[in-house]
Amino acid sequence: MDDDLKNTQGSLTLAEAEIFDDSLLAKNSERSNKTIGLIKVKARKACKETSLFLLSNIGSISMVVCYSIMGGFLFQAIERPYEIRTRTFVSDIRKGYIQRLWRANMDYNIFHRENWTNEADAILRTFQTEIFAVVRDKGWDGIDESAMEKEKWSFTGSLLFSVSIITTIGYGYITPKTDEGRVVTMLYAVIGIPLMLLCVTNIGSILATCVRALYGRTLCISCRQNVVLFFKRKFGHTNESINRMELIAKYNRNEVVTNAHSVSTRTECAAVMHELNTTEHHHRTEEVRVPIVVSLILMIWYVIFGAIMFSIWEKDWDMLIGAYFCFTTLSTIGFGDFVPGHQNEDWNDHAKQVSCALYVLLGMSLVAMCFELIQNECRMFAKRLGQFVGLIKPISPK
After folding, report:
1. Model pLDDT for residues 153-181, shown as the tens digit of each residue
2. How many CB atoms lie within 10 A of CB 221?
3. Using CA atoms, how far apart are residues 370 and 297, in angstroms rounded to an integer?
4. Staple 163 to which of 100, 120, 121, 357, CB 3.0 to 4.6 Å?
5. The domain 292-389 is classified under which CATH number: 3.20.20.70, 1.20.1250.20, 3.30.70.60, 1.10.287.70?
6. Residue 395: how many CB atoms within 10 A of its CB?
7. Which positions fall inside the Potassium channel domain (predicted)?
8. How many CB atoms lie within 10 A of CB 4?
9. Is the pLDDT of residue 230 over 60?
């Protein structure tokens, strides 16, 4: 009986242990499932926040800047070794032909002009043919290997090349010579061009909004006339209206003193300004129309600014060439006949190439802004023309 009792107690203990283990495993499994669920929720939230940031204005600008810098390092790593090998190859060719000329001097009597001239002419013709083949096939730029500070594929040169790709300018004076570089260029453009268009569109919209707000509060004649009409209608042609307008001007300049009397004046001014801003005669920012002339003046000013800057940097450029380069660049024509630092061999300041890249990026945004303002004016003109000829029915005021 005692043995049976002990066996029964032992079997019960094992069963309880198995039940405890199963409950512990269930708890652990439930806890791990909760942990995995929390991780999924946090990952989903992080992906959503990251996507919203990348699609925002700051995010798109940051992506374009990082993408351009990445392209600078990438193209430098691919094309720079090939450029160095090409320069070394040309240097070896030149040294070999120097030795051939020296042997010709040793083999022929230099006083026998005809024989020496024929041999030297044959050597130089062969040298000319080989150099032409190197320039045609390998893209040699005529710079010796000793001038490594004038590399085309330095980081700043590669950065300018990457910017010319994503902005679709494509100067053409520097192009990839390796198969890897050409494949990377195509892939880089497929991703970079839409990214650049998104960034330029966002920045152009922001700048257009700022210009509308600035123009509406400073230069818009209709807004200024509506303000005057508001005060005439509100206060009439009395000294009181003049005093109130002067007080409001002081209120805007924060010149009202803080005493008991001016507190009520400040409150009154604030109330009048609030009523003025909410009156039907005051335009909202999105309703302000900027004339096409203003947009053209902004573009012309930016081209003139770039022309002055590049004509100072480049010794061989005048204002006309600088303006020509800026216009062909900002319009994405990009002939490549004039490129900063390409004609001038003394330009070793890499900061100027970076400044050129920034000028292009900002200029593309400015052009997008001006195109948006001009497009808005053209849309309004087409709408008025359609109403005039009867194609569009005018909206009657409520």
Report:
1. 888 889 989 999 999 988 877 889 899 99
2. 7
3. 10
4. 357
5. 1.10.287.70
6. 7
7. 150-207, 298-376
8. 8
9. no
Give 50-71 as a DSSP string: HHHHHHSHHHHHHHHHHHHHHH
Is residue 305 pLDDT above 80, yes or no? yes
Which of 312, 371, 329, 309 lies closest to 163, judged by CA? Answer: 329
Backbone angles phi, psi at 178, to 5 degrees: -95, 155
* Per-residue pLDDT at 274: 57
Torsion sign (Cα): 34, 36, 39, 41: negative
Q: pTM (2 decimals)?
A: 0.69
CB atoms near residue 206 (< 10 Å): 14
In the chain, domain spans: 58-204, 221-282, 292-389
Q: List all residues 6 or more positions away from 198 whose beta carbon is below 8 Å from its beta carbon.
A: 60
Residue type, 66: C
Query: Of the CATH numbers 3.90.1150.10, 3.90.180.10, 1.10.760.10, 1.10.287.70, which one belongs to the domain with range 58-204?
Result: 1.10.287.70
Please tell me whether residue 3 adopts helix, strand or coil conformation.
Answer: helix
132-to-43, 142, 147, 284 alpha-carbon distances in Å = 58, 11, 20, 65
